[in-house]
Design a protein that fits this description.
Strand order of the largest sheet: 3-2-1-6
Mean pLDDT: 83
Helix content: 55-70%
Number of strands: 6
Radius of gyration: 24 Å
Structural class: mainly alpha
Distance between the termini: 47 Å
Shape: globular
Largest sheet: 4 strands, mixed
């Protein structure tokens, strides 16, 4: 009895790039933690990808996914469970000298260094190509995707992508090793996870740990991990880099930072660390005056520190900005927080979650 719903195609085009990578790794018999390490993505993301693969392809379970990986050509006979991973390590180690990885930071201005030595990444367009690869951990980025992301609607006249990649390979060469840290296949280019350490991947790993702490009911551990993740951010995100991809990623990464501050602050409020939460919430509220959940959390922190007047001032300031900039009244969540503070409803405020709803 067959265990897959096969498509008859040599490759599974219905799946996204990273889903195909996860399916191929599953076909090789890797566990979720091994797939996360190989593809440099959080373990929670691996589970999410696998769940979507099972739904999209009508597969019953992981065993069916392994068979489907062979059926659609993602895993070849002789590359079955665990053999691909087992064979990859010795070959990679044989061609490399030991030494520090190249480190790349995208959670601020793009930077790269090795053994404390900053690396020259060339002009801004070339840097934007590297940023596009670093922002796609574990995924191959096609030439057209790079052109669209870095140049938008004004692509270069000549095919400059291979030239830029050649220069970046020289700039990022790991110590005295001749091995390149940017891999290439018929689909495009990717950073090799064993050769490059990207701060975004470290943040994703910390976010996965934050999720585990939340599920385990460990707010102190959550605060610690949030603090480590926030410490990775430094300065203006992707400062000066051109192209629609950099612009989109600035917004996306800024939203991720806001979400981390909110999660950390919410846990600090649960732990009674009101004073510690206030400073960061004040800065975040000043930078994002229309963010009502942040304003509500700041109001709660101020009130619990005995600063009721300051908490009410935050509400008034948010109400005026919402009216002036968006011509809308405060949301129900913000009004509810305001009313609880006016009534001195300690129990109600303690029971609110990050979105102003009952926890």
């Amino acid at each position: 009895m067959p265990t897959t719903a096969t498509t008859g195609q040599p490759t599974d085009s219905a799946l996204r790039h990273q889903e195909r990578d996860v399916l191929a790794a599953v076909g090789c018999g890797l566990r979720d933690d091994e797939i996360a390490s190989t593809l440099a993505i959080p373990e929670d993301a691996v589970a999410g990808h696998l769940a979507r693969i099972l739904v999209k392809r009508g597969l019953r379970d992981r065993a069916a996914a392994i068979v489907h990986a062979f059926d659609c050509g993602l895993v070849l006979p002789g590359s079955g469970p665990r053999t691909q991973a087992a064979n990859r390590g010795p070959r990679a180690a044989a061609g490399r000298t030991t030494g520090p990885k190249v480190q790349i930071s995208v959670l601020g201005p793009l930077r790269a260094w090795q053994d404390g030595r900053p690396l020259n990444l060339g002009h801004l367009r070339q840097q934007a190509v590297l940023a596009a690869l670093a922002l796609s951990p574990g995924r191959t980025v096609g030439r057209q995707e790079l052109l669209d992301g870095v140049w938008g609607t004004e692509p270069p006249v000549t095919n400059v992508i291979p030239v830029y990649v050649y220069r970046l390979r020289k700039a990022l060469r790991d110590g005295n090793s001749p091995a390149a840290v940017i891999g290439h296949d018929r689909c495009g280019y990717r950073l090799l996870p064993g050769d490059v350490d990207v701060d975004l991947a470290r943040m994703d790993a910390l976010v996965a740990g934050i999720g585990r702490a939340e599920r385990a009911g460990e707010p102190a551990e959550g605060v610690r991990l949030c603090r480590q993740a926030l410490d990775l951010f430094r300065g203006e995100l992707l400062a000066g880099l051109p192209g629609p991809l950099a612009e989109l990623e600035r917004l996306r990464l800024a939203e991720r930072r806001i979400a981390l501050v909110q999660r950390k602050s919410e846990w600090q409020l649960r732990l009674g660390q009101y004073a510690e939460a206030i400073a960061e919430l004040f800065a975040l509220s000043t930078a994002h005056p229309l963010n009502e959940p942040v304003a509500a959390m700041l109001m709660r922190a101020l009130y619990r520190c005995g600063r009721q007047a300051d908490a009410l001032s935050v509400f008034d300031r948010a109400r005026r900005r919402l009216a002036a900039d968006l011509d809308v009244p405060p949301s129900r969540m913000l009004r509810r927080t305001h009313q609880m503070i006016l009534r001195g409803d300690e129990a109600g405020l303690a029971g609110l979650g990050p979105a102003g709803t009952a926890r």
